[in-house]
Design goal:
Protein name: GntR family transcriptional regulator
Number of helices: 10
Keywords: DNA-binding, Transcription, Transcription regulation
Organism: Paractinoplanes globisporus
Domain HTH gntR-type: 1-62
Pfam families: FCD, GntR
Radius of gyration: 18 Å
Strand order of the largest sheet: 1-3-2
Shape: globular
Structural class: mainly alpha
Number of strands: 3
Largest sheet: 3 strands, antiparallel
Order of helices and strands: HEHHEEHHHHHHH
Strand content: under 5%
Amino acid sequence: MSDALRGAILRGEFLPGERLVEAQLMTRFAASRFNVRAALQDLSAEGLVETQRNRGAQVRKVSLDEAVEITEVRMVVEGLIAARAAERIDTERASELDEIALLMRRAVESGEYRRYSDLNQRLHALIREIAGHRTADRIVGTLRGQLVRHQFVLSLLPGRPQQSLPQHERIITAIRDGDPKVAEEAMRDHIASVIEALRSIDQLGGPA
């Protein structure tokens, strides 16, 4: 039940601030009240859901200030993951990275920015898989979940894919070369640029 509700929130099927009514969730997910409440507690612990007195549970809103703080933590943890991936890379996984890099470049060149955003998610997931660092993977999964709405807005920023593509290519090259130091540095530089982009949304009057 927790996985199903988490997936629905991350896909944007429930919006920030939207109430999560137990009876409706029971019907939608064919779950018992006990399982629904347990799922809400799990997602509350992850920061995806918040429970307010007399109002029940709702999808938690994340302000831009908090989104920046969360991304600063991501920068450190994902840098560690990239370094670990560079230490563990093999020929098969290097080929997978090459394929994603090629598809990302084609997506940018053809203006398929939604596809580029999907490939971006796939790349970061593959790097976490290569790294095999379960604790860091769990932390990043929680942090990224809280940022789903802001990540969607970022993906639509004019010029963002063209800016991030060479950053992703640098990360991929460093991991393929088996260079943990450069891989970590490249990942941290990439996520630092995400923080700059988030701040630019704030200046443009983006979502609070």
